Amino acid sequence: MRDGIEDEAPEPRRPKLIYPFETVPEQGTGEAVEVAPGVLWLRQPLGGSLQFINVWAIADGEGWAIVDTGVQTKETSQAWRAAFAGALEGKPITRVICTHLHPDHVGLAGWIVRKFDCRLWMTRLEYFQCRMLVADTGREAPEDGVRFFTAAGWDEDAIENYKARFGGFGKAIYALPDSYRRLSDGEDFDIGGKTWRVVTGQGHSPDHACLWCPELGLLISGDQVLPRISSNVSVFPTEPEADPLSDWLTSLAKVKSVVPDSVLVLPAHNDPFHGLHSRIDNLIAGHERGLSRLEEKLAEPKRVIDTFGALFARPIGPDLLGMATGEALSHLNCLIGRGRISRHVDDTGVAWYRAGTNAETSV
């Protein structure tokens, strides 16, 4: 799966990763598994195909620093109450660190920081873009969005569904605090007497923060590196010419160059694992294969919606159409950036993509 969409087809050979824990925390119960001295692994309910998100509690003086929170639902807040009284032993939360802006990571950050009068730590782009997206709650769908999805080949029913669903992002997020503590790439900071370093990546989100502790041999990878699924990398109506896939591939190579292969990776989804570098190589190779398949498919002009078969293993229905469109566009824009394909917009506003660079490009 790819945050709800199956991996590119055909399935590339996955590396042999090592999963050292036979016991996993039961989601939503307040139970935890210690993955290193002073570092607890908890699971919060998520629903959908992903089912849960891993969150982390790090001993921090007389309390706990929390990394990621889960989405804003009654079930998740109840799960946190169970954790506060259970595995976290009634100790205070000292800070909330969010790897990035997606609701399953930041959804209850505002609730927890207000409950414990502590600070939210995020990178600048993640914090401000999250607030921007939340501000769309209740707005009508913009014409830019309608043009964007029309260009992708969506029919009238799909466009109407987009209009009806627009502005729902903020419903899954408790109001963020009005201030935050900025995380910066390469920054070292202390949690409970241990030094953690920020390693940022782009593509899945604007400035995703991974947290690396050399002393403990841990990497909290968020969604940047996942063992069994590959994070969604999408183009959105706010920046239709963006090339997030190139950003993401570059970021993966950066993580590999900075963080040693010996770390235990603590991902947001699936289980903790060893094998960081081979997994990164596999992720990069899988996307490169997808780009090659896509270019081959474009021997004749295709719309965005005509390219799904080159990238996804199963048919794309209405529930996954938006995500699949964004992901397909990230691959198409990457190929345009590499000079491999061109884009032409016809008189009806629909974009057509073709291998080679001879076709006229208009936006």
Q: Gist?
A:
This protein is α/β, with parallel strands linked by helices and 363 residues long. The chain has helices at residues 74-85, 103-106, 109-116, 124-135, 143-151, 156-165, 244-258, 276-297, 308-311, 321-337, and strands spanning 33-36, 39-47, 51-60, 63-67, 93-97, 119-123, 181-183, 188-191, 194-201, 208-213, 218-222, 264-267, 341-345, 351-355.
Walkthrough of the structure:
- This protein has 363 residues and is of the alpha/beta class.
- It has a single domain (33-288), classed as Ribonuclease Z/Hydroxyacylglutathione hydrolase-like (Metallo-beta-lactamase, Chain A, 4-Layer Sandwich), CATH 3.60.15.
- 31% of the residues lie in helices and 21% in strands.
- It has a seven-stranded mixed β-sheet with strand order 1-2-3-4-5-6-7. A five-stranded mixed β-sheet has the order 8-9-10-11-12, covered by helices on one side.
- β4, α1 and β5 form a beta-alpha-beta unit.
- The longest helix has 22 residues, at 276-297.
- It is globular, with a radius of gyration of 21 Å.
- The protein starts with 32 loop residues before the first strand and ends in an 8-residue tail after the last strand.
Key descriptive features of the protein:
disordered C terminus, 363 residues, Metallo-beta-lactamase, Chain A, 14 strands, 5-stranded mixed sheet
Distance between the termini: 32 Å
Shape: globular
Number of helices: 10
Kindly report the name of the CATH homologous superfamily: Ribonuclease Z/Hydroxyacylglutathione hydrolase-like
Radius of gyration: 21 Å
**Helix proportion of residues, in percent?**
25-40%
What's the average pLDDT?
93
Query: From the 3D coordinates, which CATH architecture would you assign?
Result: 4-Layer Sandwich
Number of domains: 1
| Total beta strands | 14
Question: How does the helix and strand content classify structurally?
Answer: alpha/beta
Stretches with pLDDT under 50, minimum 5 residues: 1-11, 359-363
Order of helices and strands: EEEEHEHHEHHHEEEEEHEHHHEE
How are the strands ordered across the major sheet? 1-2-3-4-5-6-7
The top-level CATH class is: Alpha Beta
Q: Briefly note the CATH topology name.
A: Metallo-beta-lactamase, Chain A
Question: How much of the residues is beta strand, in percent?
Answer: 15-25%
